[in-house]
Amino acid sequence: MTGYLLKNCAAVIVDEGKGPSVRRNVDLLTNGPALQAIGENLSLSVLPEGTVVRDASGWFVYPGLVNTHHHFFQCFVRNRADLDWTKLSVIEWLDRIYPIFSRLTEDCFYHSSVTAMAEMIKHGCTTAFDHQYCFPRHAGKRLIDRQFEAADLLGMRFHAGRGGNTLPKSEGSTIPDAMLETTDEFIADCARLIDSYHDAGPFSMRQVVVAPCQPVNCYRETFVESVALARDRGVQLHTHVGEGESPVIEARHGMRTVDYCAELGFAGPDTFYAHCWELTHDELRKMAASGTGVSHCPEPVYLVGAEVTDIPAMQAFGLRIGLGCDGAASNDNSNLMHCIHSAYMLQCLTASTRAHAVPAPLDFLQYATSGGASLLGRTDIGRLAPGMAADLFAIDTRRMDYVGTRHDPLSLIAKVGIGMPTDLTMINGRIVWQNGEFTGLDEAALFAAAEAALATVEF
């Protein structure tokens, strides 16, 4: 694999394990999948054979973003007035949207995955976790296989969350029968995917997470068996927690969701939950004590959250925090870069009502990088330092958009926001996006194929 020397970077966000800092006017060298060196005037005479030299004058170089919660398939149900949250109750919305989900085909799942990952790459995301819990019976069981195919096409580092729903609507779930699986079906396919795709080695591009959709839509045994499989195979666990379901779980099981999951063993350093906006401080402390992490999805808060997630408390209690886009049904884009800005601004909006101070802007960048890596159980991504994966993105700041901002690269994304695609995105040492184009791919053809697949869906 070719290496790259980025010469004369205006700023590189470096983190050698003691927190991010800014290195000004330095070169950055990659070699194969790894970042080899960051320093001034790296000698051209000692470069590995085949190294490509790029002028990076004016570039701010950041670690690649790590998405920790999404539903790629929902890209095919975004920006629809008939599904507008502001005009429907949650129950009405679910009753309308799940029948649409149940009509998606295998090709829809593939092309929606290409769509979501392409947008993420354009905006600096280099590792994507997707929570794929929608398995219509007619679409078959190879939906996540097709997601890995899409990730390979784009060069995305991909963690597949194999989700599923087992509780019938007649017993209190929100899931149509056409999307139900048995616990045995779900666990068997999780095991198949782990055996087929999961790579726990350094710089792994493919991993699998056991991720039953949420406690309200699954039998107790589904979570028990998920824990057993994940711990046996050494993979991560994930589910939705704390997005309004706790009173339902309490009515069914005599305890709220955090305690219910903990009782089942679905908690710990190998486990992370999505959302958690309704949780009490005591519940957050319990999660911190167990090592359970949280993927904060800020943009759906505007639409579906009853309150703004208490990130200051989570930070104060020592929870591991990552960021996620969430599905396009409750966030109509797949732009994790934008989520950094949204997350920070939301916390500023509610600062006067909180017991703890809003974390620094830099912390929000860390949630989307090293924080996300921690949730996914990765120690080789999320930071720029020699020996880490060469996952990064670059922004040419020699534009009017950045006048007056360039003195503080660490706060730039959270406070100012980045309103355009990156100038370069690199994953595992390979440039996958530069100068407005996907390397080796025809975006117009990808667009046409996705639109054709979308046209097959009946709304």
UniProtKB/TrEMBL annotation:
PANTHER family: AMIDOHYDROLASE-RELATED DOMAIN-CONTAINING PROTEIN (PTHR43794:SF11), AMINOHYDROLASE SSNA-RELATED (PTHR43794). CDD domains: ATZ_TRZ_like (cd01298). GO terms for molecular function: hydroxydechloroatrazine ethylaminohydrolase activity. The keyword Protease does not apply. It comes from Rhizobium tropici. The keyword Hydrolase applies. Keywords: Hydrolase. Residues 60-432 form the Amidohydrolase-related domain. Its EC number is 3.5.4.43. This is Amidohydrolase. It is an enzyme of class 3 (hydrolase). SUPFAM superfamilies: Composite domain of metallo-dependent hydrolases (SSF51338), Metallo-dependent hydrolases (SSF51556). Transmembrane segments: none annotated. Belongs to the metallo-dependent hydrolases superfamily. ATZ/TRZ family.
